[in-house]
Design brief:
With about 170 residues, the protein is an alpha+beta fold. It contains six helices and six strands; from the N terminus they run ααααβββαββαβ. Helix content is about 40%, strand content about 25%.
Length: about 170
């Protein structure tokens, strides 16, 4: 497995588990995790991964999405235009006025700009947004991708997702 993919999987695991612990423990937990799960990474690579993860976790949008009450590996299911859609988002946070959706992407190098995100990912996130709008009417649904290689956060504006939307959700299971 290539370094990019291996590091991406490590970042994904850290982003999934660290929010379950107090923020003041994240650095220590990350160091122990990397020492145990990534012994082939050099000390410099482990340190770079640690810094990337902690920097990403420090972003305001990430803190909101990973905060108390957020769900890791949240399943989604419903019908869109009569077709059953089943998926799973990496992090879901349901608030009184909005729903935050994060999906981690490990298998590709991250694009530099949001306009360069692969259409496949835009269709996926637009579909999730459609399902969540039906499940939580009246709430704003905000979507973002987290590129685990380089630990980069990328909000997906509605204007970018709208052309990829499948239509209105008919039912949520």
């Amino acid at each position: 497995m290539g370094l990019r993919f291996r590091r991406g999987r490590l970042v994904h695991a850290l982003l999934q588990s660290l929010p379950e612990h107090p923020a003041e423990m994240w650095e220590e937990l990350t160091r122990r995790f990397l020492a145990r799960r990534a012994p082939r990474l050099s000390a410099a690579e482990q340190e770079a991964t640690l810094r990337e993860v902690l920097s990403l976790l420090g972003e305001a949008w990430m803190q909101a999405a990973l905060g108390p009450g957020s769900l890791a590996e949240a399943p989604l299911a419903g019908k869109v235009n009569g077709r059953l859609i089943v998926g799973q988002v990496d992090r879901l946070k349901i608030e009184a006025a909005r729903v935050l959706v994060l999906d981690y992407k490990t298998n590709r190098p991250p694009p530099e700009q949001v306009a360069d995100v692969a259409p496949l990912y835009l269709r996926q996130m637009a579909t999730y947004r459609t399902l969540l709008r039906a499940a939580f009417p009246g709430r704003v649904v905000e979507c973002a991708l987290v590129w685990t290689y380089g630990a980069r956060f990328m909000a997906l504006p509605d204007a970018l997702l709208d052309p990829h939307a499948p239509g209105e959700a008919m039912r949520i299971n």
